[in-house]
Amino acid sequence: MATYKKRGFKPKTKVEAQEFEEQESTTAEVFSSLDEGASRTEEWVSKNQNYILGIIGVVAVAVLGYLAYNQFVLKPKEANAANEMYYPQQYFDQALNSTTAKDSLFTLALEGAEGKYGFLDIIEEYSGTKAANLANYSAGMSYLNMNKYQEAIDYLEDFKSDDAILGALAKGGLGDAFMQLDQPSDALGYYEAAFKHSDNEYTTPKFLYKAGVTALEMGNKTKALEYFQRIKDEFSGSQAATSIDAFIGIAKTGA
């Protein structure tokens, strides 16, 4: 049985001497193997040095290029796009608050005027920016208000946002557009997505109500009752709850 050998150990028997020699031989082989491995590694690195440096160079250039793109291309593009949004957004806000000439104001918001970009120009010229994404929402809502429902769908579907209000309103707008195109099943799906997008006092009861009414029209009174009851239980102070008891009564009939 092999034992731990202290420094300066001298074997006292032939067996110990043999074990000692075997251990020394094994240690020498290990170090020899490590030396050979290191030599092969150094040889490989030496032969492939240009390749390795090339890979490092490519990675460095890619990283520097990405940083430069963000700093000198993307950031200025974002800033310019945000500035361009100011002009059409004014017309969009005016159209929402106007009782006359709505279509004309929405058209100015969409197409621009006097050399200024509209939402459609921003979407095309500044694709990939936050402003272009927001322009998709505004363009979709503009078309929705102009009763151009397919165009509204096209742009609202391109809008992506985790914002509690805008994200829900965009999905609800898609529901409204599909409802006007007499596609209640699609409309219901978007209304449900809208109230599930976030839980708040404004959009949640609004789209629960629209989902309930749509489900009722489709003959699904069980689902309608579920949505109306939730408005009554959770959002009793909302506008949607004003006449909710009547809708609950209708939904309960035969539900």
Automatic annotation (TrEMBL):
The keyword Membrane applies. Pfam families: TPR_16, TPR_6. The chain crosses the membrane at residues 50-69. Keywords: Membrane, Transmembrane, Transmembrane helix. Residues 1-12 have a biased composition (Basic residues). Residues 1-21 are annotated as: Disordered. It comes from the Bacteria. This is Tetratricopeptide repeat protein. It comes from Maribacter flavus. The lineage of its organism: Bacteria, Pseudomonadati, Bacteroidota, Flavobacteriia, Flavobacteriales.
